[in-house]
Design a protein that fits this description.
single chain, 6-stranded mixed sheet, alpha/beta, 279 residues
Amino acid sequence: MPVLPNFITDPLWDQFRALLPERTITHPLGCHRPRIPDRVVFDKLLARLVLGGSYQQHADENCSATTMRARRDEWIRAGVFDAIHRLALGAYDQAVGLDLDDLVIDGCIVKAPCGGENTGRSPVDRGKSGLKRSLLVEGGGIPIGWVLAGANQNDSPLLRPTLEKLEVFGCHLPQNITVHLDAGYDSVTTRSLLEELGCDWQISPKGAFVPINHTRRWVVERTNAWHNRGFAALAKVTDRRAVVQDAWIALASAIIIIRRLVRRAWSIYRWGTRPARSP
């Protein structure tokens, strides 16, 4: 049974395959051991992203754990994971439109029991190794960019590099942007940074309870839940290298965007094409 529906994996694979670098055969005789098809490895990596676990647990007679890691690294070096996320963003912007007038940023701490880069002692898990994602989403919750850091880092210093992820849009940004933040960012430093960048802000004040459904911040909490509940490899990070951690988030974010596109198209088809009832 596939880990994701075919209406998500098929268009995702079509775009992913188009981004793969052209392979050149360097064997002097032009022959070698048959290469495992890219689609087989892609499905194995998807299974690990969704179900979590080690590479050995997803290996079988069709694809070894060594092949999965080698092909993953090959695609990372080619920039395929980042490119698939950018393509998904562009498709959503063209079909639906990104709400860049309102941006929401928040941090999320997850387990990282193997340690490695971007990890630190988690203040919410008895000092165990953890990883923090500083996530930037647009007004509807579509993930735009993220910054990875140790779980012991504060949210505020990660604000500038997270906002810099908007460079993917170049100069195509609204004139007025409002950044929505929680009380952890309530400081003079944050306001000075946003003023420097020419952004307005809505920051929950420290010491005051503001229901999240009374703010625009609920969308980033929902996206964090999509990442953690839908992709076990993001909820418990066992990859030690930063480039691999970033690649998994990029692929998961592309899947989220495609799912939203399919949902939007289904809603329009279902409700927009229904015949009107006779009076």
